[in-house]
Amino acid sequence: MKLFFLAIALPMLAQDPAGFQMWTSSELQTRAAALKLNQYQQGVDRMENWGNHAVILERLEGETPAEAHETMADLFIVTSGETRLTVGGIIVDPVNTSAGEIRGKSIKGGVANRLAAGDIVHIPAHMPHQLSVEAGKRCTYLVFKVRME
Questions:
Q1: What's the whole-model pTM score?
Q2: 23-147 is a CATH 2.60.120.10 domain
């Protein structure tokens, strides 16, 4: 009888707590490789949204539009490859694409930073930013979005 109880109870005890989520490195690599690229040569996997924060997996083989978020901070973690991140300055030809989201062609007067696997970057709300990858190369990164209201 004790063995029967253990056989039933142990799997229940081994389950992850409600709300806990985990993605293995292997799973992230598989998901990134499967992403379909858009007109910017960028693939986006909106993995999860918990209301005031979210995680997105992206693969970039081109150049993103310049953007700024009025109520969201971004935390980037580069998982493979290299990219150039331009921050600050002003967005050229800005357009409100949705509530709190501004996009444009490029950034004027920003500062360029070279990012590589393992690098982590925090971009506060309102700060213009843009990513680009050299032709023939790719970069994979996670973006953690945090609502700053």
A1: 0.86
A2: yes
